[in-house]
Design brief:
globular, alpha/beta, 5-stranded mixed sheet, binds 5'-O-[(R)-(carboxyoxy)(hydroxy)phosphoryl]adenosine, binds zinc ion
Length: 380
């Protein structure tokens, strides 16, 4: 019975998972309302909100599961990557709990958590065979990574075969929405209004990288042959949108839209549509189509290179409808089974942290009370 704690960015979450597969409760306190007026996450405010929310969110998770602290077997916590201050609140809280309750502490990498969000839900659907090689695309506000995932004994091992060289895909969604006066977080808004525009109207291009090989890397004690990399880049498209806005004199309309939308508590699709002209709707739809096209194309190329059988697409951007449709179409065409988390489990939550902790519990991978937050923690 593992209690998971997540506080790496702007959601405070606690969840309880039994045996790595049975979700007993999952509680998420979102900070959207706190950061919304600033158009992005303010790190100091995030830490303060986590401090306020950690205890009530944990109590709610226990109450929903009908458990007491004494019935827990371990405390798992995200120790990176993420905002240093935000991570520190969760890590300090989890350490205090583990110490006071005399329960083992398990450190979980946030990116690994996103991968286990899919695995947890797949296990809930029933016993299925996960066919290897498995590739995971973790695509969110802070990450755009491709990992080959391997199960050796009880433990998962990961090899990064691609990452963004600059902005994450979700960051590009958020920054573009902010630039166009649409609000925060931008991903879900762009997803909702893209259906009103022409995805072919504006053409965007992406940086191309040579698939640099990793030379003679050592893996599992043996030298692996050269592995091709599949990197991403999403800062260019943000600048291209800015140029388009400048060239077409769109700033006055953007400012008018920003003020108008701020007056509406929860804008509907129709509210967004009525405050956007055709040119803006076409720009938004074209932006989304371009990012989705690039993400799928590079990921499918990696699937082909590595003979991938199973693709896991996860992280906040995996909630995007166009991205799901596109992968659902391309995957089967290439003989790849594609799995997504439910939309709720795509974005940050603690169920994925408790689920990822299970294999560490099985292999006795516990953290000491000297555990600290690591803002740039890598996944291996
Ligand atoms: O996984 P997550 O909650 O936090 C990080 O680990 O970063 O992901 C949040 C990101 C934000 O950038 C948000 O705009 C994006 O996921 N996102 C979406 C959608 N829902 C959330 N992007 C595109 N379409 C969506 N439907
Ligand atoms: Zn995340």
């Amino acid at each position: 019975m593992v209690l998971g704690i997540e506080s790496s960015c702007d959601e405070t979450a606690a969840a309880i998972v039994r045996g790595g597969e049975e979700l007993l409760s999952s509680v998420v306190a979102s900070q959207i309302a706190t950061h919304s007026p600033y158009g992005g996450v303010v790190p100091e405010l995030a830490s303060r909100e986590h401090l306020r929310n950690l205890v009530p969110v944990t109590r709610a998770a226990l109450a929903k599961a009908g458990l007491s602290y004494a019935e827990l077997d371990a405390i798992a916590v995200t120790n990176g990557p993420g905002l240093a201050g935000a991570l520190l609140t969760g890590v300090s809280f989890a350490k205090s709990l583990a110490w006071a309750l005399e329960k083992p502490l398990i450190a979980v990498n946030h990116i690994e958590g996103h991968i286990h969000a899919v695995l947890l839900e797949e296990r809930q659907k029933g016993p299925g065979v996960l066919e290897f090689p498995v590739l995971a695309l973790v695509v969110s506000g802070g990450h755009t990574h491709l990992f080959l995932a391997e199960l050796r004994g009880d433990g998962w091992h990961y090899e990064n075969v691609g990452h963004t060289r600059d902005d994450a895909a979700g960051e590009a969604f958020d920054k573009t929405a902010k630039l166009l006066g649409l609000g925060y977080p931008g991903g879900p808004i762009i997803d909702r209004i893209s259906k009103f525009g022409d995805p072919q109207a504006v053409k965007f291009t992406f940086a191309q990288f040579k698939h640099e090989a990793r030379h003679g890397s050592k893996r599992a004690g043996r030298i692996e042959p050269d592995h091709k990399r599949f990197d991403f880049s999403y800062s260019g498209i943000k600048t291209a949108v800015l140029r388009y806005v400048e060239t077409n004199g769109m700033f006055p309309a953007i400012e008018a839209r920003r003020s108008a939308l701020l007056q509406i508590a929860a804008p509907t699709d129709e509210d967004y549509k009525s405050h956007c002209d055709r040119q803006t709707l076409d720009l938004v739809a074209s932006f989304q189509a371009a990012v989705v096209g690039d993400l799928t194309q590079r990921t499918m190329a990696a699937c082909e290179e590595y003979g991938v059988q199973t693709l896991l697409v996860t992280g906040g951007v995996a909630a995007n409808s166009a991205l799901r449709t596109r992968f659902e179409r391309c995957g089967p065409r290439s003989g790849v089974r594609v799995h997504f988390p439910s939309r709720l489990m795509s974005t940050d939550n603690a169920a994925m942290i408790a689920a990822a902790a299970y294999s560490k519990w099985m292999s006795g991978e516990f953290a000491g009370l000297e555990l600290s937050a690591q803002a740039n923690l890598e996944l291996r």
